[in-house]
Amino acid sequence: MPMRIGRAGHDIDGVFTWALEPSAPFAFEPGQFNMLYAHGVGEVPISISGDPNDFSSLHHTIRVVGNVTEALAALEAGDEVGVRGPFGSTWPLAEASGQDVLFVAGGLGLAPLRPAILSVLTRRSEFGQVTIIYGARSPTDILFRAELERWRGRFDVTLEAIVDHSGTDWYGPVGVVTRLVAEAEIEPEYCVAMLCGPEIMMRFTARELEQRGLEPSQIWVSLERSMKCGVGLCGHCQLGGTFVCKDGPVYRYDRVASKLLLRGL
Amino acid sequence: MEDLESILQKHSFLADLRPEHVKLIVGCAKNLRFRPGEFLAREGQKEACMYLIRRGTVAIETHAPNGETICIETLMPGDVLGISWVTPATAHFDCRARDTVIAFSLDHDCLDRKMREDAALGYAITSRLLDNTYQRLSRLRLQQLDVYR
Amino acid sequence: MQCSPGSQSVLDAGGFERLLALLRSDGFVLVGPIARDGAIQLSAITGIEDLPRGVGDEQSPGRYRLRPREDDALFGWAVPSQPWKKQFLPSRLDLVHIRRKGSALEVEPAAAEANPIAIIGARPCEVAAMRVQDGVLRDGPHPDSDYAARREAAFVLAVNCGTPSGTCFCVSMDTGPRAKAGFDLAATELMEPNHRFLIEVGSDAGARVLERVAATPATDGDIAAAADLVAGAAQKMGRALDNKGLTERLLGNLEHPRWDDVAERCVGCGNCTLACPTCFCTNVEDSSNLGGDVATRTRTWDSCFALDFAYIHGGSVRPTLRARYRQWLTHKLATWVEQFGTSGCVGCGRCITWCPVGIDLTVEAGAVGEARG
Residue A148 is inside which H or E element, if any? Predict the structure, then answer.
């Protein structure tokens, strides 16, 4: 389905966000992705990064890593792009209702979590403590910085950000996200944790959370694999007995942990 | 006002340390305050003590010839600064108070002597240091992976 | 005579020819086996004269040969070199043309409606394979519409097997040598005392066609002869696969040294996936005209043995042959069951025959999990 790019904005180095204008209301659930098509070049899976309650504007945050994303980056507001979706599983907002919610995002992993965070903030009273932990490579690599600062300013959200290294332009903590996870104020019994970032970071974070007393069944992760068709027909994204495009990308950690520990599965 | 012994015991590094051991090391400890920007340790200088941070943030830094300061890690309340103390080495990094930092210092020579005299205290402190070092090491390994690249 | 699903009748060679002619006149393109370039291949055929008369085959790991038979059987071989899946899942299919007009994109469907085909002479294992692919491509929540349409329009004339090869193991997989379901008509070719076909009706469509061919009712003798033939075939399986606990054994031994061993022999050519009647993986290629204004998305067969098959930003998820062979075998025999409720293997033996280095799936599957010798 062709969709017009309403607004195109630069986020951080090599990363941009589009607000697409669907011709009909576009509904999706937090955690889902679309296949975005660059004319004549190809299609790539990109998670939806916008507000699920906004049906008139579809947001995608894209990092330039290959020839398709390079072609997408060359498009401007007013151009049309191919969109297929939404595909895939969703963050467990229903399960999280009535519980504390812990979001742990790393790098660009904040984009697929953003719709879930926005949903939780919209229905804030349905949840207990809301904690957001964000890790980035350096202060200039912090995605959606203004919004993170806005969320941090709320009385009903705890937000901590940490960077792997910094100069003197950063006043927050320097280190890895697991450091903040180790110290986060959580009640292990009443907590649902949603993790998104590089797979290694999610594995380390899940381990830290388990040390804090969370069961793997309270932890959810979003995985990346080679996704082509989006509906479980092409075989590319297989992970054990699942296809990441339709059984994922969001998985309960206890269902994939052993698969992630095996090389080349 | 609480005495040094009872507040020392509350530091997470010394959590569950036997009271007689706390008594033994209290003589090595001082409660210090650092102003923002003040250095707790300097690269190349001998570290005469280790610090148990109680308040504030300490940045572990180095610098490049172009004047750029690179922060490798920040330490927060509950952390231990100066684990290189275990070897008679000089500091590898600058350790700078980012804000007002309150910390206990534990004098090296004093602590070393008491740990040698009382093997149980020696074990208790050494195992805490090892545990702390391992946690720092595993975080640094993750950091070194540079996963957000 | 009256025909209905389950009824059995007999056609002589002339009757079989009339059946093919009727299917043609009903608008079906007949696709059947022919002997060409030293192999039984699948091709459009016009009638009985195109079928491989008096030809048999020999198959063993990494080896395939045709040999003359002493009789004039038309289906006197085991399985053709190619699987039938191409009829429903073409190896190349243009999906859409996308035209750029200024800043806008216009999408036009590219797939022309294909003529319905009549499958002539699919073996029971191959009919089972069609049903396995149905489970993946048609019966899930997101059916492949092109596949479903081709499948819906097709007529399946199965031919039960009397001549398994050295790489066959349909008995282990419970898919043959007699077709149980999934066909419109199923024939058993009988040579003694005269050349004839016992025809079993599998669907209403099959019944309607057969009624117009003027078949004669099957005698007890015909039925017994056909039963003897497939019973004999069941005794002649070249291979066997022990299914007992197979899924658990494979998935419980993902780090078994046998994977390293097979990776030493596997050349990663992907022949097994092309020859397999159930392998369904596809890719989509993008191309455009010289002007750059019209782009085409083309679906092509893909193989999990290709290095870039599981490529994500930064590299392949399965960079080693060990990982790729393990993916193929464990999917076929284990995780397929998790996903679709059936094995992904039907025991046709093609992956064994057409492996250039003769890797034998039944041997590998048996060896994974065995104690080191």
Answer: helix A145-152
B71/chain A closest Cα distance in angstroms? 5
Buried/exposed code over C79-109 (b: 16+ C-beta within 10 A; e: otherwise): bbbbbbbebbbbeebbbbbbebeeeebeeee
Q: What is the ipTM of this complex?
A: 0.92
Interatomic CA distance for residues B4 and C208, integer angstroms:
99
Tokens 């002649």 belong to C236
Strand partners, A58: A20
Q: pLDDT higher for A32 or C369?
A: A32
Dist CA A65 CA C315 (whole Å): 12
Taking the C-alpha atoms of residue C269 and residue C359, their distance in angstroms, rounded to an integer, is 12
Whether the CB-CB separation of B80 and B53 falls below 8 Å is answered with yes
* Encoded amino acid at A155, one letter: F
Q: Is the pLDDT of residue C227 over 50?
A: yes
- B48–chain A Cβ distance below 8 A for any pair: no
Single-letter amino acid, residue C145: S
C338 contact residues in A (CB cutoff 8 A)? 240-241
Which residue numbers of A have CB closer than 8 Å to C's CBs?
Answer: 1-2, 4, 37, 39-43, 65-66, 78-82, 224-226, 228-229, 231-238, 240-243, 246, 262-265
pLDDT tens for residues B81-133?
A: 987 766 667 888 999 999 999 999 999 899 999 999 999 999 999 999 999 99
Q: Is the pLDDT of residue C373 over 60?
A: no
* Fold that domain B4-145 belongs to in CATH: Jelly Rolls (2.60.120)
Residue with tokens 């519409």: C145
Q: Which domains does chain A have, with CATH numbers?
A: 2-87 (2.40.30.10), 93-222 (3.40.50.80)
Distance CA C34, CA A248 (A): 44
Q: Above 80 in pLDDT, residue C372?
A: no
* Distance of alpha carbon A45 from alpha carbon C168, whole angstroms: 41
Instruction: For residue A121, give both structure tokens.
Output: 């903030």
Rounded to an integer, what distance in angstroms lies between the CA atom of residue A119 and that of residue A122?
5
pTM (two decimals): 0.92
pLDDT tens for C159-203 read: 999 999 999 999 999 999 999 999 999 999 999 899 999 999 999
The distance from CA C167 to its chain's CA centroid, rounded to whole angstroms, is 15
